[in-house]
Structures are given as C-alpha cells and as structure tokens.
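4.2 Preliminary Data

To establish feasibility before requesting continued support, the project team ran the inverse folding procedure on a target of 973 residues. The structure was first converted into the token representation described in Section 3, and no sequence information of any kind was made available to the design step. The complete token record follows.
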C-alpha cells in the first residue's frame, strides 16, 4: 500500500490545508479547529477530555467522546487522508506538518543566533524571512474557538517580537528614517509596548526630531499611568532622560558596535548593591517585577512610601530587594515587629541620637540624604506616623520606606497596596520552592493550590514546602484544610512568618475586641458582603462600619466599588476567622443570622419587583448567589433546615427564570422534609420540586411528588396551594405525553383562577400552559389565542419573564401556521427580555425558531447553525436533551449527515421516557432517518407505531406530524 500523501497545515494566517501539495477545503469551523489543535500537538495524542475543553470551552460537556467521534469522521472525509488521523489511547493524533510555522521557527532561531553574535544584517535577513511567512492574523478564521483565541494571540505576539527585532536591526544598520515609518504604525497598534516606543523615539531622534521623540515618550508614560496605573520601566525612564540630555551615545557613530543599545532592550535586572544591615536572602526573588521596578524608580526621590498589605503578602521582601539596588546613599533598616513599648519606637528609629536633648532633630540630621526602611509598623502605626512626619519635615533629602498592614495616614505619604501575585508569578514561585520531584506537576493543580492561599507569597512558599512530604495531587485534594496544613514554615523565617497561622495570629492580636468580633462574624459570608449584610450578622450593628474601616486599613479585607461598596475577606483570612468564630461558640448563631439576612434579602428583591418581574431584581438576587448557595447547603440536616426550605421557596422563581432546574431540584430534595416546616410550606415544596423534575425529564418521580401535594392541598383550604398543585400536575402530564389527561387540571385551574381577582397572574399561567397543550395537540390557532391573551396581561403587569416566555411560545405557535416573518419578529422581541434575564430556557428556544425558519426556506446550513447554538445551551448547562436535538437531527437527515443525526436521536431516546412528548416528536424524525438510510421495513414499522401513538395520546405538533406524513407519503412512492 503506498504511503499517505503528506498533510500540510498552515496557521500563520487563515487556515490553509494541503495534501500532497494539493489545496484541500475544510469548510466546517469545528473540523478546522480539530485539525489545527491536533496539528499543534506535533503528532502526540490529545485525550478526549482535553480536546473537548479546547473546542467547546470549560463546560461540563455531555457525551464528548461521541461528539468527537463524529467530528473526527467528518475531518477524515474532508482531508481525504484517513490514515493521517488516528485514534490513540483515548484520544486522537494527527500526522501533519505545520510547514509555515516550522519554517518561521527555523528562521527565528537563525535570527537569535545572529543577535547573540552581533550580526545585525543577519538579524534583519532572518527576521524578514520569518515574517514573510505570515499571510494575515494567525488562525484568523478560528478565533471563536476557545483554544484558538490563545494560540492565535500567542502567534501574533511572537510575530510582533520578530518585527521589533527586525526594526532594531534596521536602526543599528543606520536605516532610521525607514524604521520610523513602520515603528509609528506598530506603536499605534501596541500603545503599551515599551520597547517598541523606545525604538520609535530613538528612530525619531536619529532623524533630527527630538521634540517628536520626547512627545512619544510622554504619551507612553501617560498611557501607562492612565490605563495600567504604573510608571514606565527603568529602561524606558532612562531613555527619556537620555533624550532630554541629548546623550551623544544615542547617535550612531563610525565606531559604534553593531550590537543593539541597552536602552532599547527589555528591562534588565536591577543592579546589585550591598547594604550592611539588610538580611541576606536565602532564596531567589520571584514575581512582583512591576512593583519592584516602580519602587526602584521611586526610592531615589525623597518622601514617604508605604507598602500596605495583609499578613504574608511579601511587603518586607519587596522592600529589601528594592533597597539592595541603592548604591549611592546610606540605607538604614529598623525592624519594629519585636517592639512592644511605645517609647521603644523612637529609640529604634533615632538610634544613638535617641538619648540627646532633641532626638528627632539629631536623627533627622543624621538620616538626611539616606534611605530609612521601617519594617512592620502596623502595631505602632500612630507613633511611627508622628516620628516619620517630624523626620521628613527636618530632613528634606530623606526617603522613608515603610511596610505595614495599614497606612500612616500622612498627607505626603505615597501608599502602594500589595495585592495577590498574578497567577503566572504565583505558579513560578511555587515551582521554584517545591520539591524537585514536584516541579513537573499539573499546572491546573498548582494554580488551584496557589489560589487556595490567595496567591500570597507566604502561603505559596509554605504550601510548596509541603511537597517534601505530600505530592501535588495530595496537596490539591486537601485545600479545604489549609489552616491545619500551613502551620510549619522555615526556621530562618521571622517568628511571625513561621506559618500562615502565626502571621494571622500576629494581625489578630493587634485588633481590638470589637474588630475581632466583627471579623469572625462576617467570615460566614462565602462571597463577600455589603455593610447592611454585615450589620445583620454582627453582635452589635453599630460596631460594624467603624470596624470594617479598621479591618480595611489593616489589609484584612478588601473594599470593592461595585454598586456601592462591597467587602471581601481573603480566603486564608476567612478560614482563620471561622476558627475564631468556632472558638467563641458563635457559629450557630452567626449562621442563623446569615440565613435570616438571606431570606430578607431575597424576599425584599421579589416584593420590590412584583415577584421578580424585571431583570434588575433578578440580577440583584444572583449578585449574592455565592452567599445564598452557601446558606442553603449548610442548612440541610441542621436545626436551620426549615428556614433553609423557606429560602428555597422564595428562590424558586429566580431559579425558574434562569432555567436552573438541576440546582433547584438539589435543594428541594435536601430540604422538603425539613423538621419544623409547615404543611403549607411542604406542599409548595412538593409542587415546586415536582415541576423542576419535570423540566429535567424525571416524570415518574415528579408525578409521585405532585400526587402527594394533591393529597395535602384539600386539607389546607387555600386556593393558592390548590392552583399550584393543579398547574404543576398539568405540566407534568403534558411533558409525559398524556395530552388528553392534561386538559382536566388545566381547565379546572383556569376556572378556579377566574373565580377571584386575586389570581390574575395564576390565570395567565394556566392560559399559557393551555396554549402549549394546544400546540402539542396540533391546534395552533387556539394556541395563538391563548398566548396573545397572556402577552397582553404580561405587558400590563410589566412582567419581563412572562414576556420572554410568552413571546417565544407565540413564535412557536406561528411556526405551526407557517407565519414565518411574524414568528421571527416575536422571537426577536423575546430575545430582548430573555437576554436581560439570562433566561437560558428561552434563548435556545428562540434559536430553534430561527433554525426552523431557515429550514423552511431550504437554507439548511443556516438552520444547522441556529440549531447547534440551541443544542450548545443544553450541553453547557448540563440540562439534558432538548427538542433542539430532534430538530437538528432532522436538518442533518436532510443534509445526508446520517451518523450524527442517529447519535442525536439516540441521545434523545436514552433520556426521554417512552411516550413522553420528546419521545413522540423524535419518533417522526427517526422514521425520516430510517428512510434516508434505506431501511424501508424499519421505516414502515416506525410510521405505523408512531401513528398509533399520536392517535392514542392526542399528539399533533405540526412540525413532527407533518414530517411523519412526509415519510408516509415517500413510502407509498
């Protein structure tokens, strides 16, 4: 057998594919994405779970293996090289050559060799060869695919690096005018790229445009400040200064070395400088490069700088690293952590001058012109503030660098907050500090460990130290026990930093009783909190506002400006505070107070918006979802279970609007039988639980719950409860496919709702459900009347959820009447409300409407696009199969994509109970599939059995009944 022709994949631009030198078209986006992803793996097998995440994103994807199998099958057919794509060890591998990328890498390697040897002409030639391989933005036609966004941006960033090296070489070769034009364009596209702007300024300067060069540097500095809040890097600042001074070395000379000027290279490591009384570092300094650069630039200027951060944030280490670069000024370090007496602060800072008649004057005279580092001032911050203020008034050349958990509150003070490390630096720190055999650990597990300790340097170093006894997977599994794990630090650490607990103990001891009480009480909030929420859980609400201010000043909580002010504890601080809450014996009372707050919060949001009729109320509720979820989960099985059930009941409508059926079912399952719940509460919970299970396709279990609710309802003498039971019973019967049985509870409920003006909204709900029943029964005109009645009522009430649902249902009825333009208009208006509400039940239904409309005009590709979008909602939300699966399968049958159509229908039949509405609808498409497969006997059997089932149940949904008729007609031909 002859070898398969070579497969070439070109990615430096829109995707291009060649087999044996012949161009091949791969049209479908997901097939193109799979091809590139496997090609980038260099022939290695990529497992199914990784491919699924890369192609569809970080979602809990249903049946990824089956989806990938269909995709791989299509790709093999498209490239006409089946041996190139193979199934290997639970994944796929591709034998392909990334020809343009390989050539670019080879050219880039030649360029780097030329850089190292100082061959500027060689740099230019090799860089140009690499750049000539680009045909446009990398992976330009795949940027909607999750992995391709990052890969494309990475390739484009590499291209920019090559362009910068090329232009640097041009400058060194004396081509400043030509380089300036290209640099202007590139700088406009990359407004924060410091090396690029430095090269532009240098090119302008060398062409006699000093004012323009300085203008560009000024523009860069302002942009860095406005958009990132940072100062230029030291090299950038040095370049601006050299331009101002008209440094003669900026101009090319005959004897100039061809190597590039240092001012145009990346930021160098800060120069070392020995400082006698600074502790010698025993480990490398990792991360915080932006903060370090800023501090190195700031220290030469007199004044007061305070690094403010919580325990373990790396304040001291950063300050020491920065002052080690000081070579032309005396540096003095004062460590305040061991000091307890207030008077000892002056003695420590003033040193030998403290015993004189005016110690501050003597100290100021001695320190003027030097750098004074005051480490750990938080426990004596008032005394330090007074002393520092006096010193800087008398010593104009003094720079004071303070580390503290709270600022000095001086007018001339420049405060620099110490935030958590960025994710990349945190992972690098962990890797450098962990055991040697742990350095190749799973990056996701390393990231999870770093996140668990809030990406604080101390926590990361302590966690990394544990890898001497635990593997990284073992450590990652024990993140919830971080307070017990991170108790042992290095012997070379200061006492307060020997463990994370010790660092937090130090901060806790500095608080007053009021602040400690507020800290431990607000720790119950898992997702941050507002001032009002904190007041509801506090021992004394009057203590909260001043205590939060103090805790924020001490960097124990963060303040976010989100619709007012929101407070958040770092997870390590929160864990610590919860242990203090338990020690104080206040856990149960604080949790009960949090549940009371949650109940009041949700009820108020619902009352203010007429039962969540508008999107703003829904957004308000879900803004607190992490806290509400934590409250609900903790209530089950405790004395708070009945209160937890009441919270679940008021959350029912928000859950329904968002389509969170699985979440609702989980909480009702855990709380419905809560001891202490009233019969009315239990009855409502049974109805709600039955409904959400119906929407999950668990019809038999839902029917059991609703039967129990119907038994209890007459005992309550409450029409509202009776209406609830009747409404949900009708829904479950509709979805079970028992359409004729559903009329009784619907018509009964409709009549009862009409009997009282109190039940107008209930009447609208019954009318809407009756419309759905008419659609399924094939009576689209009557369904239209029902939906139009509901929409009038919903507009009157201003009910956005009702309009989202009602307009979508109206569109469905119009589809049954072939009134396509009106259907699309109704779906578009429904989208407006559904998007405001993030109604993930209705949005895919509207995509189905658009797909059906496209199919009706025989635009099957457009139909497939909309229907796949609808299916993606179900996959992303793990909400089970939907009618979109059936309609997509039907379109695929028409396109001849029979394998995927069969897989979709198999998924429907695997989940949908026999004789249910979904099962009945899918049978018609299954018959069409069998006919397309050429199996006339199976087609005949399906048509016969399905016709009987439709007659017995009253099912007549037009699009499926019509499809069945088409198949029956085709059989007769």
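Position-by-position output of the design step:
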């Amino acid at each position: 057998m002859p070898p398969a022709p070579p497969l070439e994949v070109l990615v430096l631009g829109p995707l291009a594919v060649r087999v044996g030198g012949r161009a091949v078209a791969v049209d479908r986006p997901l097939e193109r994405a799979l091809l590139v992803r496997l090609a980038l793996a260099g022939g290695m097998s990529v497992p199914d779970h990784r491919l699924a995440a890369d192609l569809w994103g970080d979602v809990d994807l249903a049946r990824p293996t089956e989806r990938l199998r269909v995709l791989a099958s299509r790709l093999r057919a498209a490239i006409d090289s089946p041996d190139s794509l193979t199934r290997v060890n639970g994944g796929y591998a591709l034998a392909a050559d990334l020809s343009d990328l390989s050539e670019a890498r080879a050219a880039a390697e030649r360029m780097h060799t030329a850089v190292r040897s100082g061959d500027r002409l060689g740099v230019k030639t090799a860089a140009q060869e690499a750049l000539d391989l680009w045909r446009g933005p990398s992976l330009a036609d795949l940027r909607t695919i999750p992995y391709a966004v990052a890969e494309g941006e990475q390739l484009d960033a590499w291209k920019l690096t090559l362009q910068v090296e090329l232009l640097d070489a041009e400058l060194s070769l004396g081509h400043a005018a030509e380089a300036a034009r290209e640099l202007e364009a590139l700088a406009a596209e990359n407004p924060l790229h410091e090396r690029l702007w430095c090269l532009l300024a240098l090119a302008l300067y060398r062409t006699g445009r000093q004012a323009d060069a300085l203008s560009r540097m000024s523009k860069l500095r302002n942009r860095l400040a406005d958009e990132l809040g940072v100062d230029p890097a030291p090299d950038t600042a040095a370049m601006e200064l050299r331009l101002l001074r008209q440094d003669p070395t900026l101009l090319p000379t005959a004897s100039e070395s061809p190597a590039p000027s240092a001012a145009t290279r990346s930021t160098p490591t800060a120069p070392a400088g020995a400082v006698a009384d600074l502790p010698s570092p025993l480990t490398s300094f990792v991360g915080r490069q932006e903060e370090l650069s800023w501090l190195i630039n700031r220290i030469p200027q007199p004044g007061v700088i305070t690094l403010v951060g919580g325990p373990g944030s790396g304040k001291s280490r950063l300050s020491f690293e920065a002052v080690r670069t000081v070579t032309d000024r005396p540096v003095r370090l004062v460590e305040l952590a061991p000091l307890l007496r207030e008077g000892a602060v002056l003695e420590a800072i003033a040193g030998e001058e403290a015993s004189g008649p005016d110690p501050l004057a003597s100290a100021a005279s001695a320190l003027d012109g030097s750098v004074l580092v005051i480490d750990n001032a938080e426990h004596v911050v008032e005394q330090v503030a007074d002393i520092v203020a006096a010193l800087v008034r008398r010593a104009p050349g003094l720079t004071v660098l303070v580390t503290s958990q709270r600022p000095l509150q001086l007018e001339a003070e420049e405060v620099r907050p110490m935030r958590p490390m960025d994710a990349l630096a945190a992972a690098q720190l962990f890797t450098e500090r962990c055991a040697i055999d742990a350095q190749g650990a799973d990056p996701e597990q390393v990231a999870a460990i770093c996140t668990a300790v809030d990406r604080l340097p101390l926590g990361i170093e302590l966690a990394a130290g544990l890898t001497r006894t635990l593997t990284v997977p073992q450590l990652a599994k024990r993140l919830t026990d971080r307070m017990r794990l991170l108790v042992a630090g290095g012997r070379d650490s200061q006492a307060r930093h020997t463990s994370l607990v010790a660092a937090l103990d130090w901060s806790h001891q500095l608080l007053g009783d009021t602040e400690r009480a507020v800290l431990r009480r607000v720790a119950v909030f898992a997702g941050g909190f507002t001032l009002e929420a904190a007041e509801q859980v506090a021992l004394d609400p009057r203590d909260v506002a001043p205590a939060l201010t103090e805790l924020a000043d001490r960097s124990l909580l963060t303040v976010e400006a989100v619709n007012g002010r929101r407070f958040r504890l770092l997870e390590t601080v929160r864990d610590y505070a919860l242990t203090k809450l338990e020690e104080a014996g206040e856990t149960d009372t604080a949790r009960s107070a949090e549940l009371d707050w949650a109940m009041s919060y949700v009820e108020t949001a619902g009352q203010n918006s007429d039962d969540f009729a508008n999107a703003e109320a829904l957004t308000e509720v879900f803004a607190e979802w992490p806290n509400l979820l934590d409250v609900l989960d903790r209530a089950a099985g405790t004395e708070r279970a009945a209160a937890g059930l009441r919270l679940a009941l008021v959350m029912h409508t928000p859950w329904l609007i968002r389509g969170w059926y699985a979440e609702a079912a989980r909480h009702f399952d855990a709380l419905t039988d809560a001891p202490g719940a009233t019969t009315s509460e239990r009855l409502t919970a049974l109805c709600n639980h039955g409904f959400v299970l119906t929407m999950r396709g668990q019809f038999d279990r839902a029917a059991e719950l609703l039967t129990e609710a119907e038994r209890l309802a007459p005992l309550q003498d409450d029409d509202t409860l009776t209406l609830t039971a009747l409404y949900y019973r009708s829904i479950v019967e509709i979805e079970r496919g028992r359409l004729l049985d559903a009329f009784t509870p619907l018509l009964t409920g409709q009549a009862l709702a009409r009997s009282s003006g109190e039940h107008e909204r209930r009447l609208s709900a019954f009318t809407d459900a009756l419309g759905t029943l008419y659609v399924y029964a094939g009576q689209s005109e009557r369904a239209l009347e029902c939906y139009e009645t509901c929409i009038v009522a919903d507009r009157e009430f201003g009910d956005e959820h009702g309009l989202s649902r009602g307009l979508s249902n109206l569109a469905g009825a119009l589809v049954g009447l072939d009134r396509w333009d009106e259907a699309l208009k109704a779906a578009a208006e429904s989208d407006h409300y559904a998007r405001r509400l993030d109604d993930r039940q209705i949005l895919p239904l509207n995509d189905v409407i658009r797909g059906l409309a496209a199919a009706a005009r025989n635009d099957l590709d457009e139909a497939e696009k909309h229907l796949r979008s609808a299916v993606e909602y179900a996959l992303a939300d793990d909400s089970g199969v939907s009618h979109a699966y059936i309609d997509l399968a039907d379109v695929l049958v028409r396109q001849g994509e029979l394998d995927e159509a069969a897989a979709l229908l198999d998924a429907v039949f695997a989940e949908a109970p026999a004789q249910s509405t979904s099962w009945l609808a899918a049978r018609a498409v299954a018959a069409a599939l069998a006919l397309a497969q050429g199996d006339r006997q199976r087609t005949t059997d399906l048509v016969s059995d399905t016709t009987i089932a439709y007659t017995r149940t009253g099912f007549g949904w037009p699009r499926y009944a019509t499809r069945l008729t088409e198949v029956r007609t085709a059989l007769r031909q």
